[in-house]
Amino acid sequence: MKRKSNAGHGPAKRLKGREIGADENGQCGPRMSVLPEHLQHPITAKELMELLHYAALPGITGIKQPSWCSVDGQQHVEGVNVVLVEGVTQRDFYKHYMTFRRLRSNYTSRVTFTPSTPSTSNLLSGIFSSDVATLDGSCVGPVERGSSKLHKVLTTHPVVTKFGTRRHGLTAYLLPQEEMIKGHYPVKGMPGFEEFVCTHSDDVVTDASPLFGLDCEMCLTVRGYEVTRVSLVDCQGTCMLDRLVKPDNKILDYITQFSGITAAMLQPVRTKLGDVQAELKRLLPRDAVLVGHSINSDLMALKLIHPHVIDTSRLYRREFGQRFKLKVLAEIVLQRRIQTEERTGHDPAEDALAALELAQYFIRRGPLQVLEDHLEQLWGLTLQEESTHSESEPSSRFAEVLQRLGRSVCYVGKRCDVALHLANQQWLHSDKEVAASFRRLGKVPFFSVLHMSPLSKRSQDLPAKLDHEVKTWVAGLCVYVLLTACVVVLQASTPLGDMCMLFAGPFPVGYPEREVRRLFRCCGRVRRVKMLNRTHRVRFGGVPPSLHANRSRFMQVHALVEFKLLEGAALALQTLNGIQVQGHTLKVQRPVNESTLDLDVTLNALMSDVLNTRRLYATRLEPLLARSISAKRSEHAPDAEHSELNDCTPLAAETYELSEETLVQRFGRFGAVERVFAKAKPGRRARYACIQFASPEGRHAALRSLEELWRENFLVCPALTPPHMTSWLADDDREHVTPTVLEVQMEHTMEKLDRRLGKVFMSLPEGTLSVVLLLPRPSAPNSSPGLCFLDFKQKVIKPRGEERKCESELI
Asked: In the chain, how long is the greatest CA-to-CA distance?
């Protein structure tokens, strides 16, 4: 997909949902972006419903547009998928940031989420039962599928949503090539089918083309399942072909109870698979349509490619891709018993004829009439409730509006009180089953909600169990060895507090805390400063201490500085390390412990985050401090009058003020500036700013011009803090201590969660709005807020490796 840039600085990549591609027909896909003024404001469940309603109901007049984000290309939305992850908070995501590789790269919008209700079940039910605002008559639905005269049980049935209600010719029920590829039917030109034989079939098939029923029986050989009997019947029910086939490989199991084949039957047979393939090519006309029940397995066994097929297991459809057995369909629809227990094995000619007649019946009667004839016997549904609700006004509940429009709706997750018909729900016990079941669906529902809970009750009880075990085994050294090994293997995730912490010193004795804060706040907002004083004794070489009346003592003063934003710590480490403070050369460094072993990797990943690839963090130094840092950078001896920080009295504010006009003027030469974030307290000037360019090339150009910006007293670095966060530090982060063994399990759990969320995202069709909600547990006290990931699935163009490498060297 080709994307256009409006910045004039080379091809822009797709970021924050701003750029959008077009398909081969020139049609643009859907896109969304969070409005800048709402980036740092949490969204509520009500605001999320606004987006879901607007995206899932394109073309319906009167639907309220979301107040906190913009959606373009609404008419091209192919579906909406919502995944609720219970028990994982915003802090958990950033604590295990490197683990969530797929989650952070698949979504270009990320906002804080605060549910209005503490119960996840209430939120789930509210998604389906929320009222759609300002609905009018156009919400009744399409003329064909959503007619007000049609019972809602029928409008939402998978047969109607797939084929409509009117009768069509046989061409309407042919499997499209895309569905054949997805269902692993033999298709010419696809890998794995190079040795398959193609029939003599025309590309054009009409409603008058002949139907042929096909069925095979197989046995198990050393090379897998191979065909042992083939039957073909024509549209009149005449058996045209019924052959026993000798497999090429040694037979391990005849599977007689199903195939009806025995060793005695195959003993005199000389017919091989190639003979049957040649006979089928001779018998089938060029416009033939093959009919079978799960006919893909028959074609695979025959190693035959035929482009025009009707699969009766996909005609008589069920919810969530489930299929009826041929025996059940024949007994209920055709009033005929096949595959009876009195007979050993199946008769392929009988099965082929049953499949053929089922297809003919479906084509002749039409989808709606088939449903009305066998709705209760096959699908277990009745239309009795129609009489009680036929005169009432249509409901404005979200799920019912979607179903009236003929759009499929489903819920997959653990058993929950959801305002949705039981036929549209799948109750499962584990997250693994939820992801696997959703991916196995024959067709992804238009609106789907998945509920995952990776932290099971067993995981919640683990801290208490672990505490008991530690107390029991505390006398043994094995516990210490085990915990130490876990730390080494895991290289524990970086706590949020340690990411923003720096140690600096030595400072002169008596150097006040307020001056340290004043020095470091030139790089970013300082959360707290703690002075660290230590007294050292000095021994003179070669002279016993007893000869001295007083031992010499001196004091070293250091400071622990915690920034609110990670950019402040990165800039302070880059610029303040090595400067002179009243004759003392400062050394600025990060803490070194097991929690910061992989900090550099995390910083590089944050810098390349899709939310930050167009953003630049900037501050402007006071001229006096800039001269001192310049002396350090040039590695010349500083002039005491100009370089030492004996007096940090600020100059006129206008000389280094950060205003939106100034920043747009100064940074606009690198590329089009989309927005400037420069917050300040009322009555005070802004000290720090975030510049967002229209394309990543603007940021790259600014980073390549660091020396030019430095001459103007600007300090810049790639943005590291996501736009929705105001601080990297949580108030309770320092108090939240997790046992090491539990941390190992948490890391493994988060990795599995990320892998499953990635698989769900990959299974969605392009143009689907994907939403992932991380929700804290209602019972968890003082838990951090949730997090919402949003994006339309489209083809993503990743940044070039050279650009990433260039930026990573700046941190």
From this structure: 122
